[in-house]
C-alpha cells in the first residue's frame, strides 16, 4: 500500500488535502506530518522518487472520480498544467504566469476539457495566495500581491478561480483556503465602466487620462445595471435519485449528476406536479451557479428548470436535446458573454430576477429573449406546452 507523507502546514500539504478530499483518493494513504519534512511517497518501507503527476496517478487509480478528474484523452495536457504549478512550487505569483493563465482562460471554462480535472484543483491551490493578496516571500516587481483593482487586469483568471472555489466539496471546506470574496471586484468593474466616456473617432477633445482612476473614487455604492448577457450558468444534468423532503411536504430532495466529482443536492418544489417516477433518470436543465442555501434543513445547490403554463396549474421539465452530454453548458444561441460565476442572492441584487421574466417557452422551445436555449445536440424543449414561463 502506498503512503504519501507531507508536511500538513505546507502548500503541498494544502494541495494534498484538497486532492484527497475532493477526489476521494483511496489507492494512496495520506499521512499529514507535524514535522517540516520533504514530501515523500512510500511503498512500504521503500522511499520512491516520484513527482506530483506520478503521485496523483497512483493515488487516483480506482477512485470513483478517476474518469472525471483524469480524462483519458487529455492526460498529457492535464499533466502539463500540474508541471506548470510544480515548477513554481505551487505558488503562482509572477505576473508573467498570471498573465499567461488569464490569456488561456479567455476561451476556457476549465483548464482541460468541459469539466473540472485534477489540473483545475492543482492550479486553484497554486493561485490561492495570489488571490487573497498574500506572498510567502517579499514580492518583487515581477510578482503580484493582488487587490481588487489589480485583479481587474486578470478577469478571466478571477472568473475561473471563483467558479472553482464555489464548487461543492471545496467551498468553505478548508480553513487554510478561505473563500475569496469577488463581489467587490465586480462592483469596481461596474463603477469604472459607468464613469468612463468613450470619444468616438473624429470627435473633438481628448478622453481624460484619469477617467477610470477618478471613477474608482466616486460612487462607492453604484447600482448594478441590468445586463443583456446569459448570466445564468445552465448545465445538462441527470436525476439520479428522488426522495421526499422530511420536513417539507411539497419539496423533493434530488441528487443530480452534472459531471462533477459529486452528485448535486437540489431541493425542488415539484411534488404537486410530477411523481418520483416521472423525475428519476430524466435529463434536465439545471441552473448551476446559484449560491447553496438551506431549505428546511436540507442544502440545495441549484435549480431544476421547468416550464409552467400561465395559471401555473401544469409544469413540465425543460429538457436538453436528446444525446446532450451531462455537464454540458446550455448556451443562448447568438448571445455573447460568460455567465456569472455565482449569482448574487442579496436582497435587491439578484441578477437572475432581472432576466428570468425573459425566459420564455414558445412552440415547446426555450428562449432567452430571442435567443434559443441550445446544446451541442439541438434546442431545449418541454413535452407539450406551446407557451409558458421558465423558472
Tags for this entry?
391 residues; alpha+beta; Glutathione S-transferase Yfyf (Class Pi), Chain A, domain 2; OB fold (Dihydrolipoamide Acetyltransferase, E2P); 3 domains; four-stranded mixed β-sheet; 12 helices; 27% helix; tRNA binding domain containing protein; tRNA-binding
Brief rundown of the structure:
InterPro entries: Glutathione-S-Trfase_C-like, Glutathione-S-Trfase_C_sf, GST_C, NA-bd_OB-fold, tRNA-bd_dom, Tyrosine-tRNA_ligase_regulator. With 391 residues, the chain is an alpha+beta fold.
The first-level CATH class name of the largest domain: Mainly Alpha
**What is CATH's topology name of the largest domain?**
Glutathione S-transferase Yfyf (Class Pi), Chain A, domain 2
Number of strands: 19
Largest beta sheet, briefly?
13 strands, antiparallel
Shape summary? globular
CA distance, first residue to last residue: 50 Å
* Unreliable segments of 5+ consecutive residues: 134-146, 185-213, 215-226
Keywords: RNA-binding, tRNA-binding
Pfam families: GST_C, tRNA_bind
Domain GST C-terminal: 42-188
Protein name: tRNA binding domain containing protein
Give an overview of the whole structure:
InterPro entries: Glutathione-S-Trfase_C-like (IPR010987), Glutathione-S-Trfase_C_sf (IPR036282), GST_C (IPR004046), NA-bd_OB-fold (IPR012340), tRNA-bd_dom (IPR002547), Tyrosine-tRNA_ligase_regulator (IPR051270). Residues 228-331 form the TRNA-binding domain. Pfam families: GST_C (PF00043), tRNA_bind (PF01588). Residues 42-188 form the GST C-terminal domain. Residues 204-227 are annotated as: Disordered. The chain has 391 residues and is an alpha+beta fold. It folds into three domains: 2-165, Glutathione S-transferase Yfyf (Class Pi), Chain A, domain 2 (Up-down Bundle); 181-197 and 212-225, no CATH class; 234-390, OB fold (Dihydrolipoamide Acetyltransferase, E2P), CATH 2.40.50.140. 27% of the residues lie in helices and 21% in strands. A hairpin with a 2-residue loop joins strand 16 (365-368) and strand 17 (371-375). The longest helix is centred in the N-terminal third of the chain and has 14 residues, at 118-131. The chain is globular, with a radius of gyration of 23 Å. Mean pLDDT is 80; it is low at 134-146, 185-213 and 215-226.
